[in-house]
């Protein structure tokens, strides 16, 4: 189970396992992690957790959220990342089992990396939770460029992360009414059919051409095998 180590000025204050799907951080008492400091907004940030994967989102805080010294709005947390909120530090740690994790088994497509989550929960946008679709239609991604051109990735999980951490990352979420792509990390937004996306989730349609971290791929759907 992933956990956070809260510290200030090098002094460890507490250790908190990320047991909930969504963990909120802020100054107000209703937050899961309350930091009673004026530099912290009432509702500062949130972390959506999927097994050992975690997705950090700044909730339009006044003073911002930083990861490893860089300001972020949305960020896929990696083991040993340090989240900075004012003078406070939250170190993100994962615990891997003896077997290979989803992160270890990431599929590399040239300069891009695709990582699938393995639970039917969590979303890129916390206000619109993911629910496993009841239909037997499953989305697919086919790589069109790079050393792995021609390979396909089945989007059977609730959330699939695509991109190159530190450069450009997006997530594709599987929802009851279709598949949606959302920008997560990087100054350059993903491109769909030649048009750059904005910060909002964008619904994918059959044969959409996506470009992330310099790799082109095509989205399409097919009937899942029974």
Protein traits:
six-stranded antiparallel β-sheet, 226 residues
Topology record:
Blueprint: E1 3-8, E2 11-17, E3 22-26, E4 33-34, E5 45-50, E6 53-58, E7 65-67, E8 70-72, E9 74-77, E10 82-85, E11 88-93, E12 107-109, E13 112-116, E14 137-143, E15 152-155, E16 159-164, E17 168-175, E18 178-185, E19 191-192, E20 195-196, E21 202-203, E22 208-212, E23 215-223
Order of helices and strands: EEEEEEEEEEEEEEEEEEEEEEE
**Strand order across the largest sheet:** 2-1-11-10-7-8
Low-confidence residue ranges: 96-113, 115-134
Strand content: over 45%
Mean pLDDT: 78
Distance between the termini: 32 Å
- What is the gyration radius calculated from CA atoms? 18 Å
Strands, count: 23
The count of helical stretches stands at: 0
Helix content percent band: under 10%
Q: Structural class per helix/strand content?
A: mainly beta
**Sheet of most strands:** 6 strands, antiparallel
Shape verdict = elongated
Structure description:
This protein has 226 residues and is mainly β. The protein has no helices and 23 strands. It has strands spanning 3-8, 11-17, 22-26, 33-34, 45-50, 53-58, 65-67, 70-72, 74-77, 82-85, 88-93, 107-109, 112-116, 137-143, 152-155, 159-164, 168-175, 178-185, 191-192, 195-196, 202-203, 208-212, 215-223. The chain has a six-stranded antiparallel sheet, with no helix packed on it. A hairpin with a 2-residue loop joins β1 (3-8) and β2 (11-17). The model is unreliable at 96-113 and 115-134 (pLDDT under 50).
């Amino acid at each position: 189970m992933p956990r956070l180590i809260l510290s200030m000025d090098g002094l460890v204050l507490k250790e908190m396992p990320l047991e909930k799907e969504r963990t909120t951080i802020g100054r107000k008492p209703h937050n899961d992690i309350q930091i009673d400091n004026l530099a912290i907004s009432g509702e500062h940030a949130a972390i959506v957790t999927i097994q050992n994967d975690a997705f950090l989102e700044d909730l339009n805080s006044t003073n911002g959220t930083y990861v490893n010294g860089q300001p972020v709005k949305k960020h896929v947390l990696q083991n040993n990342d340090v989240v900075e909120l004012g003078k406070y530090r939250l170190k993100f740690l994962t615990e891997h089992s003896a077997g290979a994790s989803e992160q270890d088994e990431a599929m590399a497509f040239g300069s891009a990396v695709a990582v699938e989550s393995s639970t039917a929960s969590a979303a890129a946008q916390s206000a619109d939770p993911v629910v496993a679709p009841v239909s037997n239609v499953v989305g697919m991604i086919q790589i069109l460029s790079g050393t792995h051109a021609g390979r396909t990735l089945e989007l059977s999980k609730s959330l699939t992360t695509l991109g190159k951490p530190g450069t450009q990352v997006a997530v594709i979420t599987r929802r009851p009414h279709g598949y949606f792509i959302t920008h997560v990390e990087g100054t350059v937004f993903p491109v769909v059919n030649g048009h750059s996306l904005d910060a909002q989730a964008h619904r994918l349609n059959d044969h959409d051409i996506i470009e992330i971290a310099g790799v082109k791929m095509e989205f399409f759907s097919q009937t899942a095998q029974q």
